[in-house]
Amino acid sequence: MLNSLITSRTRIRLLLKFFLNPKTSGYLRQLATEFGESTNSIRVELNKLTEAQILKSKSEGRNKIYNANTTHPLFEEIRSIVLKSTGIDKVVSDIINKLGSMKLAFIRGDYAIGKDSGLIDLILVGENINSKELDRVHKKTEKLIERKINILVLDPGEYEKLEQNFNAEPRLIIFGKIENEK
What we know:
By secondary structure, the chain is of the alpha+beta class. The chain has 2 domains: about 1-70, Arc Repressor Mutant, subunit A, CATH 1.10.10; about 85-175, Beta Polymerase, domain 2. The chain has helices at about 1-5, 10-20, 30-35, 40-50, 75-85, 90-95, 130-145, 155-165; strands at about 25, 55-60, 65-70, 100-110, 120-125, 150-155, 170-175. A 4-stranded mixed sheet has the order 6-5-4-7, sandwiched between helices. A 3-stranded antiparallel sheet has the order 1-3-2. Helix 7 links the parallel strand 5 and strand 6. The chain starts with a helix and ends in a 6-residue tail after the last strand. The mean pLDDT is about 85.
């Protein structure tokens, strides 16, 4: 969807990187390696997005670190477009809102760090989750967003036992709140 609006593949990748998870940051060489592109093409797009104040940058040593400008007036709209283009908004509405007693839902893995890999790792924490409805909505959503969704369902007790493992990796909370997170 984004490629019909934005013709620069590099710009799309940067928007996905920084707006899927606004806590994500990156620097030129790291982004060039991650995207498999030249530093020059990355630099051109970073400069354009920074000049438009969609991204902000700060110097750390010899590196310039970039991240989403969450104070930009269009931040929420850009983030909404990015989420819709990846289908995460559909995951939230189609899977989470139809399952019953959900306490927490988050994405981990590539999407949590702003990388559109085509595989969404979704963790659902709740009680009495309707597995038939989950399976039906899961299949429907995968077809709709053209991405594979890996779902792990945990009851609150199971989540509590594994919480330290989840805390050790980046995650993107899409429903609920984690008690010890700011």
